[in-house]
Amino acid sequence: MTQVYFNGRWVAPEQAQVSVFDRGFLFGDGVYEVIPVFAGRSFGLMEHIDRLGRSLAAIDIREPLERHEWIAIIERLVRDCPSPDVSIYIQVTRGTAPKRDHAYPNPPVAATVLASASPMAALSETIRREGARAITVPDLRWARCDIKSVNLLPNIMARQQAVAAGASEAILVRDGMALEGAASNLFAVIDGALHTAPLGPHILGGITRQKLLEMLRAQGQLAVVESAIPLDRLFDASEVFVTSSTRDLLPITRIDERPVGDGRIGPVWTTLNRDFQQMKTEQVV
Ligand SMILES: Cc1ncc(COP(=O)(O)O)c(C=O)c1O
C-alpha cells in the first residue's frame, strides 16, 4: 500500500491518525486540494498550490509548507503510486488544540497536514458514449464557496441525491441561478456562446474551469459569457457540461429527466474536449 505524507513523516495510511481534538475532525476547520496526474505528470500543479495558499489564507492558517516542499511530496506520491493516472489529495487543518473551543487556539498550534494518492477512477463506457445525467438541487451551501473547505456536507447531500436518482452530478441552484455542480463547474452552450458562472463567493474557482477559459481566450473562436445561468436558460441550452480535475470535461445529456438539446453529446463539447486533451498533454509537468 502506497505510503501517505502525514505531519512530516511517510507512513502507511492506517498509521496516519488524527487526534479526536483535531479541529478538522471537530469543526471541519480545514481546507483541501485535489491535483490530477495524467500518465505520471501533473496538470495545473502551480495553480492548485496557489489555490491551496488562497484557501489557507482565507481561514488564517499559515501555509505549513513551502512550494518546493509541496512539489517534492507530490512527486514522491506520483512516483510511488502504481497507477499512471492519479488523484493527489492534500488536506490541511488548523491542528490539534488542547481543548474544544470555537475560537482559534492561542497560541496557534501546528497544522495537521495529509497528502495521499489514489488511482483516478475511469468514466464508464456508457457515459463516454451517451454523456452523463444530472439533477438540479437547491444550493444549501454557505456564502464562501470560493474557499475549498473540508466542510462538504451540502455538497455530499447533493451528490448523494444525484447518485440515488441514477445521475452523475447535482447542479446547485441558488436564487434561480444554476451555479456549479456538487464537485464541478458548470458550462452551457446558449445561442452559440459558452456560459459559466463568474468567479466570486458563490462558486469554487475550478482549475479545470480556469484552464479551459485560458484555452478559449487563446483560441478566440467561441464567445464566453461569465454570468450565472438562469435555470430556465439551462434547460434551453443546446449543450451542457461540467468540469473538474478528476472528470475533465464531462458532457451532461440529461438534466432532471429532460434531454439537453437533442439528448446526445454535442459538437461544441467534442471540439473543446479534443483541444483540452491536446492542451493537457502539452502542459503537464
Ligand atoms: C464545488 C466545486 N466546484 C468546482 C470544482 C472543480 O474544481 P477543479 O477543476 O479545480 O477540480 C470542484 C472540485 O472538487 C468543487 O468541489
UniProtKB/TrEMBL annotation:
The pathway noted for it is: Cofactor biosynthesis; tetrahydrofolate biosynthesis; 4-aminobenzoate from chorismate: step 2/2
Annotated GO MF terms: 4-amino-4-deoxychorismate lyase activity; transaminase activity
Quote the SUPFAM superfamilies the UniProt record gives.
D-aminoacid aminotransferase-like PLP-dependent enzymes (SSF56752)
Cofactor requirement: pyridoxal 5'-phosphate
Extract one GO BP annotation from the record: folic acid biosynthetic process
Q: Which reaction does it catalyse?
A: 4-amino-4-deoxychorismate = 4-aminobenzoate + pyruvate + H(+)
- Which Pfam family would be a valid example here? Aminotran_4
List the keywords (alphabetical).
Aminotransferase, Folate biosynthesis, Pyridoxal phosphate, Transferase
Origin: domain of life: Bacteria
**Annotated EC:** 4.1.3.38
Q: Which GO terms describe its cellular component?
A: cytosol
Signal peptide position in this chain? none
The record's comment on protein family reads: Belongs to the class-IV pyridoxal-phosphate-dependent aminotransferase family.
According to its UniProt entry, the function of this protein is described as: Involved in the biosynthesis of p-aminobenzoate (PABA), a precursor of tetrahydrofolate. Converts 4-amino-4-deoxychorismate into 4-aminobenzoate (PABA) and pyruvate.
Alphabetical list of PANTHER family matching this protein: AMINO-ACID AMINOTRANSFERASE (PTHR42743), D-ALANINE AMINOTRANSFERASE (PTHR42743:SF10)
Query: What's the protein here called?
Result: Aminodeoxychorismate lyase
**What organism is the protein native to?**
Halothiobacillus diazotrophicus
UniProt lineage: Bacteria, Pseudomonadati, Pseudomonadota, Gammaproteobacteria, Chromatiales
